[in-house]
Amino acid sequence: MGILLSEATGEQVVLREFHVFGRNASRSDTYLPDPHVSLLHASMRWCDNSWQLTDNSRNGTFLDGCLLSKGEWITVQRGQRLQFGMHSANPWRLIDTAAPLACLLPLDANCKQIELTYSNLLPNPEPPELSIYQVSSAQWLMDTATETLILADGDIVKLGAYRYKLQLAAQLDVTLCNTLIGSGNIPLLKFLLSLDEEHTHTHIEYGKKSFDLGEREHHYCLVTLARRRLADARAGLDASAQGWIESAELAKMLGMELQHVNIQIFRARNQMMKQLPANTKMADIVERRRGGIRFGAFPFEIIRGSQLEGSYQP
Question: What is the mean pLDDT of the chain?
Fold first, then answer.
């Protein structure tokens, strides 16, 4: 992430893909309450794999003491000093020149910002309290123990006793597309169970490619949800009604605490999204509504031993 450090206060600013500095609090990404700063003083942008700075002000913007020509974009290197206004007493330094990322900005002392990828188990994977994941360049979701919520830029996220503010950066989605697979197809999931159902192996077939997800505890949780969807489909239920099961009932079927079930759901989605990062549909591998949960509208096969138990096509 691009980060500016205030030499006067020690404050850190995480840069958006296009970031505005100024004295207009409602239109600036970073509010500078300094009489020497213009309402919309200067801007930084991520372009050609570097951070660039331009001046829009009356009082000037300086880079290492040199006045910028108004409207000209200048590349900023790590360690260079930025000053907004000739007489400003708050110079800044660029201390991180990485590409912009969505992140959680801490609102409490003694916390650091948290970089977000397209799928995140928070506050840590062992065990996660919740998951935050990206389903499109403009939409992020948060999966808690009880529901899935749509997140917007600036929303407050609580992790344990600490609070964070979500800051989005549209540039992140570019990093998700560097695969050979298009994002329009729906993958086929194959669940391979041992006869005693002590072991569950999962494969994904996607176009001409096949992915082995190995044997994981959370795969059996997916199988249990898939079986409910398959049974409802065979019973003739409408697709909108297929597969829903109360979270408490699922926990009882799996013989585990509800908290452990939620952790398995978080991990299952996280693994699927990391395996196929360019396919945003993988975020819907498990769907939630208040109190209920189901396997998403994906084709699948369940093979127990060497026999096909059932297959599903949405």
Answer: 89
